[in-house]
Amino acid sequence: MQHIIVIGGGVVGLASAWWLLEAGHEVTLLERAPDVGSGASYGNGGQLSYRYVAPLADAGIPLKAFKWLFQTDGPLRFRPEADLRQYRWLASFLAHCRADVNRRTTAKLLELGELSRRAMASLSLVVPPERFGWRDAGKLVVFRTRAAFDVAASKPGAGQIWSPEECTAHEPALGAAQHLLAGGIYNPGEAVADCHAFCVALAERLGEHPRFRGVVNSTALGLRAERGRITGIDTVGGLVTADAYVLAAGIQSRTLADTVGIYLPLYPLKGYSLSAPIRQDDIAPEISVTDFERKVLYARIGDRLRVAAMVDMVGEDVSLDAKRVAGLTRLVRETMPRAADYSQVSAWAGLRPATPGSAPIIGATRYDNLWLNVGHGPLGFTFACGSAAVLADLVQGKAPPFALDGLTLRG
Fold this sequence. Notes:
The chain is of the alpha/beta class. It has helices at 11-22, 61-68, 84-96, 99-123, 146-153, 164-170, 195-208, 252-258, 322-335, 380-395; strands at 3-7, 26-31, 47-48, 76-78, 139-143, 160-162, 183-187, 191-192, 212-217, 220-226, 229-235, 238-240, 244-247, 267-277, 288-291, 296-301, 304-313, 346-354, 361-364, 370-374.
């Protein structure tokens, strides 16, 4: 049994802490915010896409990205930084924009997704799904252009292929947008839930676990290393120590790793979400919907509609851009005009720590007591339980449930 400090109180850090506790270790959680799940986990889209994953890096994306930059309400914004990490990440991203690389990454993420689905199911025995608004809603990806629809529909195991009429018959919330659609692909078994509520519920169970040593609310400033081992974490409250350490602190992970000479290929992809109350007469989506070309997702979470979208490459800026919020609101009103009370909409922005190839980094470092669970991008909620299970196996010295090529720091 080891005493392990998990750095990060978001969904990935909390899941890591739980699986390590269940593996027999003592765990302390280090979190800089007063409350868990208050960063990228707070207002995310809520989709749990175990069977449908689409890495951002793919053939044709660089040209699409260039066009998006000139669209008023396009899904991408880019602001150059005086930070070499931005350009290093972009160079690696462009190198990943190949169809063969995308296929390999997709296959690996599907393996992680299936493990995550099973891991979440096992966790439901101790964290009741009703605590965090779990719904087996299924997922419908709708396409606005015939070319994109035909490519997606031709992939083996894509899902149920629906015409525009079938899309709106199964999901009436899309009725006003039927004339804009080329078709859709539906996958049953996908889910939606409130990620923040999940974090709160899981944190409560952590607090009840006999091997949980508690939460240290302090900001980590850097790691200390000596003779191939991490010897402690410098925080604003002083030095904290343990036998081993897990870095799961979102985008802060790259700065902390830098303090001991480890480069993590992470960049904060800023995303936005809107939440609006659903009234009795509103036609809100029952199925989780993703608008493929606009890169917007819609999910009913409890009595609210959650809409998430956009990739802004603007550094670690979490401020709300009024123009981006207004543009997203216009698009939502156009696509689902009767889904919620948009006069009561609230907006949120968060930083999704992404790798160039969209695959998380799980496992060992060159320090024998420092472990990683980082880089989940927009799929942190989806992959949190699976990556935590993998991490716990690795810390125990067990073989992972599948080959981790492409999912490790060296991979």
